[in-house]
Amino acid sequence: MADLTAGPEKTPKQGNAADAVRASLTRRNRKQKLLQGLGLGAIGFAFLMLFILVASLVSSGYQAFTQTKITLEVYVDPEEIKPEKLPRGGFKDVLQASLSELLPEVDTSDRATRKALAGILSNGAQFDLRDRVVADPSLIGQTITLTVPVSDPYDQLNKGTIDRDTPEQNRRLKDHEIAWFDQLKAKGVISKPLNTGLITNADSRFPELAGLKGALIGSFWALFVCFAISFPLGIGAAIYLEEFAPRNKISDFIEVNINNLAAVPSVVFGLLALAVFIGWFGLPRSAPFVGGLTLALMTMPTIIIATRAALKAVPPSIREAALGIGASKHQVVFGHVLPLAMPGILTGTIIGLAQALGETAPLLLIGMNAFITSAPDGPFDSATALPTQIFIWADSPERGFVSRTSAAILVLLGFLVTMNAIAIYLRNKFERSW
Amino acid sequence: MTTIKLTASVLAITAIAASAASARDAIRIVGSSTVFPYTQAVAEQFANNTGAPSPIVESTGTGGGMKIFCEGIGENTADITGASRAMKASEYELCQKNGVTDISEALIGFDGLSVAVSRANDFDWDLTLGEIYMALGAQVPVDGEWKDNPYKMWNEIREDLPAVEILAYGPPPTSGTRDAFVELAMHAGCEELDFVKDGGFDGDWVEENCSRMRTDGPFVEAGENDNLIVQRLEADPNAVGIFGYSFLYENLDKLKPVKIEGVEPNADTIADKSYPVSRPLYFYVKNAHRGVIPNLDEFLEEYMSDDALAADGYLAERGLVALSDERREELQDAILNGQNMEPKS
């Protein structure tokens, strides 16, 4: 650019043209270096931020991928648990008795100590035991080995996030409770296996029991509905606009509006869904189906734009060749153009769905941030989605949820990276160049 | 392609048919984010104990919850709403207008609002409500005149406070915690000031002039997420934070409470009201839904049980400050018998 504008002024002094070029050369080189440097700097900055993000997530989240558990020899006392009364019974007392056996010197005559001792076990332990006994009532009267999670404060202690040096009155766990735990640890009944509960449990108010199952299934249904609606509609709209629609003011107007729609903030779609799908159609609140409909509204413009770009990239010669041998327009589109454009369309769709997976605002508005302790059975059952589950956990006071929030973000990022990787793979595998 | 389209439309049609036909089997609960953790606890306990479908608990804020609750009666409406303040007369009217006439009110306990600093802060903080107002109110009396708050340092508020800049992280205006803080701390603190006492201003004047937090920097709205405030306090030992007592309780190893009028917040001081910044927590239930929505009665039984509500119950473990035994028994009677609340006007 610089030499072009400089040209006309320099022409009168012909003898000095070479000098002028030489003089400007260093300046231009410097500018180029500067531009390169800035570009590199920008990339470096972006990488640094990404690194900080991932590093902070991993450093606070890795704790949640393991869970402290305790292995107990439980004598299923027929005095406490009677077969005719199942599923009710003194499961808590039975568990506590087996804990007392491990810690024989603890005096359990007063209520407060008994309660503190029972506090080592997660609240879910009694239900684990109950489920096993209900499934097989012949266990009553026998001694079974049970591995159950410990409660959150002890989990945090085992993971080192509770500092033993803080003064006793400022700690969730008192000195004698820490001593109990150390004794149990010395007996070798404490283990720290991989926390499969993070994926296989639904939400819970106890961090040690809380998992992502409900959110994963909810997200799956929402994305499935979103795909089932936005993919065929998006492709249909794109084919019509690209292959059949006449070029006039109306189609221009539609095109501009689709581009605008793609840029509408997602919260607006949430409000629309709240008013139309829930208020007007009377669909249930918090249902993944409604979430999917809302996300479909958001994803459709992305799919339309990607599909039109992919259709445009198919060379006209293909169409002309097909038309030339007598194919109808319909045959040309479905027999030749669409299959060739498919990799591009799929890439756009997957990227659109990945965007929809991470979308939070519209789901909050339609109530997909509810607390539900069971996973949904279908798209009409109330559920959460991954991003809204992160939202709920981030707002919970218990210490264990801090690491679980980060872990859930890592799971979400994992899904996003996988989806994008599939998109790239499809593009590279099926892409054709002419 | 056509098969996909066909599936999609079949899906959509079954969807609408299914939603119209299927009866609701889970209880729906909306309402305050402060009551949310307690209702959450009861819901989980209830689902575990009975094997019934787990209730759907949504945190919508007190006002938002009232709006959903008062929409009407029927399967598509919520059964219970939680509230961190009593139902307002306007909300009661809205309910009546939409046919929600039989409502039971349950005062389940109290929640303290705590002001806290990092453990790294050495000073022994003890503020009066008047001092809190002078530090955080948008307008304060300066030399006998009502002016924009000029104070930037704590030692300008009271001489023996540390000479550090005032920096407080607190909830945004959309939060029930903020409403409660303004009402319980700011209004009360404003009324304590000599200027207001001597000037003979009434409650309306206080509400009009003392409700705004300052916006010139020392008060920072930290978002709805109280955990975020806890993290900020750890990073800056000179900052104070304002949040619900349960967050202080969970983080006592990192944070220490600021005494208010010489009283430290804990379960005892909040229950006997000697700690001044505490508020009642309620839930409201539609009596017309009882016996119609499956499991609603059983759920209320669980909520009203001593296991949950008593001073050593599991709600107290989560930070709820329990009612006295006498009041609890009264409440259990009222709710289990489906007694309607007094009309509000």
Keywords:
heterodimer; A: 434 residues; mainly alpha; MetI-like fold; 2 domains; three-stranded antiparallel beta sheet; 64% helix; elongated; B: 345 residues; alpha/beta; D-Maltodextrin-Binding Protein, domain 2; nine-stranded mixed beta sheet; two-stranded parallel ribbon; 13 strands; 42% helix; globular
Report on this structure.
The complex is a heterodimer of chains A (434) and B (345). With 434 residues, chain A is mainly alpha-helical. Helix content of chain A is 64%, strand content 4%. Chain A has two domains: 69-195, no CATH class; 213-430, MetI-like (MetI-like fold), CATH 1.10.3720.10. In chain A, strands 2-1-3 form a three-stranded antiparallel beta sheet. In chain A, α10 (249-262) crosses α12 (288-312) and α11 (266-280) packs across α12 (288-312). Chain A is elongated. Chain B is of the alpha/beta class and 345 residues long. Chain B has two domains: 26-111 and 280-336, Periplasmic binding protein-like II (D-Maltodextrin-Binding Protein, domain 2), CATH 3.40.190.10; 112-278, 3-Layer(aba) Sandwich (D-Maltodextrin-Binding Protein, domain 2). Classes of the chains: A mainly alpha (434), B alpha/beta (345). At the A-B interface, α9 of A face α1, α2, β2 and α11 of B.
List the helices and strands and how they pair.
The complex is a heterodimer of chains A (434) and B (345).
Chain A (H helix, E strand, L loop, with lengths): L1 H9 L6 H45 L7 E7 L15 H12 L8 H8 L6 H11 L7 E7 L2 H7 L16 H12 L3 E2 L5 H4 L12 H32 L4 H14 L3 H15 L7 H25 L3 H9 L4 H29 L3 H5 L20 H9 L5 H31 L4
Antiparallel strand pairs in A: 1-2, 1-3
Helix pairs in contact in A: 2-17, 9-12, 9-14, 9-16, 10-12, 11-12, 12-14, 13-14, 14-17, 16-17
Chain B lengths: L1 H20 L6 E4 L4 H15 L5 E2 L4 H8 L10 E4 L5 H9 L5 E16 L7 E2 L1 H8 L2 E4 L2 E4 L5 H4 L10 E3 L5 H17 L1 H6 L3 H7 L9 E3 L4 H10 L4 E5 H6 L4 E3 L1 E2 L6 H5 L6 E9 L9 H9 L1 H4 L4 H4 L7 H12 L9
Parallel strand pairs in B: 1-2, 1-3, 5-12, 8-9, 8-10
Antiparallel strand pairs in B: 3-13, 4-10, 4-11, 4-13, 6-7
Helix pairs in contact in B: 2-13, 5-7, 13-16
